[in-house]
Specification:
By secondary structure, this protein is mainly β. The chain has one helix and twelve strands; from the N terminus they run αββββββββββββ. It has one domain: Calycin beta-barrel core domain (Lipocalin). A hairpin with a 4-residue loop joins strand 5 and strand 6. The protein is globular, with a radius of gyration of 26 Å. The termini are far apart.
Length: 186
């Protein structure tokens, strides 16, 4: 038995130089990806006032949205501020943050968002088709309030005007609620 252990140890020691050479660390640097081409979204940079109307609310509410390029050139950062509304329980501004970038491996735009009241989301888009950009929320999960939702379609009307449309279905009533948005650039 002792001889068996000695032979096994000798084989392991003899194999170490081959194992070590097979495990050599790669020294070739990983190529850096190209930064996204934001030229199709350049018109968005700046501050916009958006009027958002839900068909289940008595009036539209106003949100101020600012788009800015991130200093490193990988994202367009969006900050949205909505003042308290009569029908919204929060007494503080609702502030949302989006980071939009392009993923060249999947050939799609990506929007990662979160807000100061626990909201979050992840949306994908194939990009502009003419003057429209469609976002699909991949993080949506049905809740006790909302059974389903549609994609959000953004339409570029001009360099200083955008519109948006989407809808959702209430879980309890089955009612389809339309949401329309009109944004104008300052």
């Amino acid at each position: 038995m002792r001889l068996h252990r000695v032979l096994l140890a000798a084989m392991v020691l003899a194999a170490l130089p081959f194992y070590a050479s097979a495990q050599q660390v790669e020294s070739t640097p990983i190529p850096a990806p190209k930064k996204p081409n934001f030229s199709s979204m350049q018109f968005m940079i700046g501050t916009w006032t958006c009027s958002i109307k839900s068909s289940r609310r008595p009036a539209a509410y106003v949100t101020t949205i600012t788009y800015a390029p991130d200093p490193n050139g990988w994202y367009i950062d969006q900050t949205s501020v909505t003042k308290p509304m009569k029908w919204f329980s929060s007494q503080t501004n609702l502030t949302g943050y989006d980071r939009v970038t392009y993923d060249p491996t999947t050939h799609r735009w990506v929007d990662v968002n979160y807000d100061n009241q626990g909201g979050y989301g992840l949306s994908f888009s194939n990009g502009w088709n003419g003057n429209q950009l469609v976002w699909h929320d991949v993080s949506f999960a049905p809740t006790s309030d909302i059974k389903s939702q549609t994609d959000t379609t953004i339409t570029k009307v001009s360099n200083t005007k955008m519109t948006g449309s989407s809808s959702f279905t209430e879980a309890k009533t089955g009612r389809v609620v339309a949401v329309t948005t009109v944004c104008t650039k300052h």
